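With this grant's support, we have settled on a layout for protein records. One resulting record is reproduced below.
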Amino acid sequence: MKQTRLYFIDIVRAIAILMMLQGHFVDTLLDPQYRSDEYTAFRIWSYFRGITAPTFFTISGLIFTYLMLKAKQKGELNYRIKKGIIRGFMLIGIGYLLRIPLFQIFYGDLGTAWLAVDVLQCIGLSLIMIVLLYVFTFKKTLIFSILLFILGTVIFITEPWYRNLEINNIPIAIANYMTKTNKSVFTILPWFGYVAYGGFLATIFYRYLERQTFKKTVITSLFIIGFFLINHSTSFLYYLHRVTDLEIIKLSAGFNYLFKRLGDVFMLFALFYLLEGYLKHSLILKIGQKTLSIYVIHFIIIYGSFTGLGLNRLIGKTLQPWEAVVGALLFWLVVCVIALNYVKTNQFIYGKINRLFGKTKESKED
């Protein structure tokens, strides 16, 4: 079968990481007096910032699952599965490392704040779960696809049951993956739902990508489904409640943000898949392939990993709107220049993994 590279995946990852950079910069440093829905610019910024995390989780599920399924075609599935598990634990480890207060080690008191779960830990665990689900379904793509869709839907609908979940009788390191009581930023529920939907999309790409009309069909479908989820998913959930009389569906409809954000993600996917030929610039693709390095660098600069001296302490929430805009643009430039020219995180780590499993050449799609 002809190998078709999905450039739009790297494009979406590049857009998502740039949205994250400016989102964290502005959120951390903008003066609180301007953080009000009275300002149109802030409302627009806030809305698009809310799309960033769902996009990241969904695209992570899509690319990881797609590469795993493609590895099966090439007879490299076992290697991909082992690498996926290692990559998941690697992300979890980096996520914790970025939060460890190194100076407190000398006083023998690390505390527990560093055990809070952020995006890297959540994505890392999600990738491991994708691998386990694939193995659980006996590596049958159709069963795997259906299971991912069902899981994503159930996780979203049952969100009211775990929205304010408190867990006190298990170790905090484990509880933090399920509850925000200890200041975790992301929890496995509901965020694994987006990874599951991304994996479901990957099974569709894997099965039908080579068909002549696939691109046109999937773009149209993503636009239509995305529009429906944004504008009509709430009313559809209320309709399902009337039909089934299940209280959980009514509760989900009353605070329906997950399906709406999924609609935003689908619309973004459709847009950038449509514009793939125009945005297939080497710089954009390189940024999309450097998301881990960019994330690590931006975290150190903004939040002061290792040193405790980040922009959040040095500047704080003091910037005027125009200063935040100019600063965000400069922040983009600085982080991307460092990541693209001086940091070799991905190549080093994946090179070690390749040698561990006897591989000599790494796919550019990682």
Q: What stands out?
A: Residues 40-73 form the longest helix (34 residues). The two ends are 20 Å apart (CA to CA). Residues 360-366 have pLDDT under 50 and may be disordered.
